[in-house]
């Protein structure tokens, strides 16, 4: 069983203490992800929303990293 099989799309994980979301798995559609790696999106906390004068529509940056370097994260805090 590959390291990536412990994870699923949309799952929050930690990489080096930073939270990220799994957006790609090996063999999955959308993001080309090498074997035993995960494709992670760390978000854009530094981007100001349009309502605050930001330009909006930044290009998402996705990183592929070895799955063995990731661990499950605490559940997110949901806000409305």
**Percentage of β-strand residues:** 25-35%
Number of strands: 5
Order of helices and strands: EEEEE
Termini distance?
38 Å
Strand adjacency order, main sheet: 4-3-2-1-5
Helix proportion range: under 10%
Topology:
Blueprint: E1 12-15, E2 18-24, E3 37-41, E4 62-66, E5 70-72
Antiparallel strand pairs: 1-2, 1-5, 2-3, 3-4
Give a summary of the structure in a few sentences.
The protein is mostly beta strands. It contains no helices and five strands. The protein has strands at residues 12-15, 18-24, 37-41, 62-66, 70-72.
What does the model show?
It is a single chain. This protein has a domain at 7-57. Strands 4-3-2-1-5 form a 5-stranded antiparallel beta sheet, with no helix packed on it. It has no helices and 5 strands. The mean pLDDT is 89. 0% of the residues lie in helices and 30% in strands. The radius of gyration is 14 Å and the shape is globular. A hairpin with a 2-residue loop joins strand 1 (12-15) and strand 2. With 80 residues, the chain is mostly beta strands.
Main attributes of the structure:
80 residues, mainly beta, globular
């Amino acid at each position: 069983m590959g390291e990536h099989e412990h994870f699923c799309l949309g799952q929050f994980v930690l990489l080096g203490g930073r939270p990220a979301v799994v957006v790609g798995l090996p063999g999955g559609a959308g993001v080309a992800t090498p074997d035993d790696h995960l494709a992670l999106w760390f978000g854009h906390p530094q981007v100001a929303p349009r309502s605050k004068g930001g330009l909006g529509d930044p290009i998402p940056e996705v990183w592929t990293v070895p799955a063995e370097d990731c661990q499950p994260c605490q559940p997110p805090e949901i806000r409305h």
